């Protein structure tokens, strides 16, 4: 049976995969929650579910491909933004089916992608958590703030156009100041970032704890006098079962600073 992944590539699967390697933390959590026991390996950054006990094959950007090949998986799960094309091609050249998901730009497209891979590749019914997540995120709140959202420092990297995290915040009533930028992840200088608050373009600083671990020191130290909120990077950037709790958790964090 030849399936088609998000990028339009064939995924030759003749049966439900029983040995799966996931190179994407969000997909790892979604698969283990929906089809427990099929994962044989995941990346070092696949931290959820916490009980996951499988082999580790390095990071998403630079997985140990030889280790993956040695496991002879029925299927490898990858992502167009997190994983390198040359690693995907090497796996495919060795006869390993690889399903590549597209980097989602919205919550609903992320959930649609998960639905496809779970129901088609694994041939399971639509999971209840996915339906619950769609219902939780279906209706965006009215606008109440414009945020600057760094995701890295040294150098500064911020949310730009068409990002999943940006849509998460949009659905919670918070727009992002670089949403019209030509890049998905712009790298402005610190002076430019600070100017967004002094000129009124932004009125909120959102600091996630991953991929860069921002803390209470980063707000006052780099943006003195600016209203800021610390949020879970997993809730902000992961798509999967975490989205069920993310709406309430992120809403509560924003409510504490926005009222």
Automatic annotation (TrEMBL):
Pfam families: Peripla_BP_2. The keyword Signal applies. SUPFAM superfamilies: Helical backbone' metal receptor. Keywords: Signal. InterPro entries: ABC_Transporter_SBP (IPR050902), ABC_transptr_periplasmic_BD (IPR002491), Vit_B12_bind_prot (IPR054828). Residues 39-193 form the Fe/B12 periplasmic-binding domain. Belongs to the bacterial solute-binding protein 8 family. NCBIfam families: TroA_like. This is Fe/B12 periplasmic-binding domain-containing protein. It comes from Haloechinothrix alba.
């Amino acid at each position: 049976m030849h399936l088609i992944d998000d990028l339009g590539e064939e995924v030759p699967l003749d049966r439900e995969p029983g040995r799966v390697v996931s190179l994407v933390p969000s997909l790892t959590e979604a698969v283990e929650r929906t089809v427990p026991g099929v994962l044989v390996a995941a990346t070092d950054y696949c931290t959820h579910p916490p009980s996951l006990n499988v082999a580790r094959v390095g990071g998403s950007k630079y997985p140990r491909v030889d280790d993956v090949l040695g496991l002879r998986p029925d299927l490898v799960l990858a992502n167009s933004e997190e994983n390198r094309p040359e690693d995907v091609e090497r796996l495919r050249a060795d006869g390993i089916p690889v399903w590549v998901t597209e980097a989602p730009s919205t919550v609903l497209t992320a959930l649609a992608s998960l639905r496809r891979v779970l129901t088609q590749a694994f041939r399971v019914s639509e999971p209840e958590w996915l339906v619950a997540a769609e219902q939780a995120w279906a209706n965006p709140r009215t606008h109440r703030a414009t945020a600057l959202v760094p995701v890295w420092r040294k150098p500064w990297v911020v949310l730009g156009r068409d990002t999943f995290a940006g849509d998460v915040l949009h659905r919670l009533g918070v727009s992002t100041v670089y949403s019209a930028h030509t890049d998905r992840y712009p790298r402005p200088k610190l002076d430019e970032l600070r100017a967004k608050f002094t000129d009124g373009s932004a009125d909120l600083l959102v600091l996630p704890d991953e991929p860069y671990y921002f803390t209470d020191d980063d707000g006052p130290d780099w943006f003195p006098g600016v209203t800021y909120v610390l949020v879970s990077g997993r809730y902000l950037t992961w798509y999967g079962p975490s989205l069920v709790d993310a709406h309430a958790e992120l809403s509560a964090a924003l409510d504490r600073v926005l009222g």
